[in-house]
Design brief:
SMc04008-like fold, mainly alpha
């Protein structure tokens, strides 16, 4: 793997992150619970990671602001427009994933 200038690497990573956000925005039908079941992260996780990264840089960013940056609009609006209630099957799959993580000592 080639060594990149740190500023170039940061710009590449930032571009990839922006592309991930666009991809998620283009696929609002993919529900957060599905992301949690399949990938163990969701849009809210991204917001928490963004908030933590901001704090590491000495930037004050609360959870609502971070979620608005991830969702592209206030979370309550996004939720009203795009979030569907979790199905019993989704809830069962999520609980099974959480139980498996706990059994592995990951939770």
């Amino acid at each position: 793997m080639q060594t990149l200038d740190p500023q170039v690497e940061t710009r590449i990573e930032a571009a990839a992150f922006r592309r991930l956000l666009r991809h998620l925005d283009e696929h609002k039908e993919v529900q957060n619970i599905e992301l949690m079941i399949l990938a163990d992260f969701c849009r809210n996780c991204l917001a928490k990671w963004m908030m933590a990264a901001a704090q590491e840089e000495g930037v004050t960013m609360d959870y609502d602001e971070a979620r608005e940056r991830i969702y592209g609009l206030p979370y309550d609006q996004w939720k009203d427009l795009h979030q569907q209630p979790a199905t019993p099957e989704q809830l069962a799959a999520f609980e099974a994933r959480q139980a498996a993580k706990k059994a592995k000592g990951e939770a």
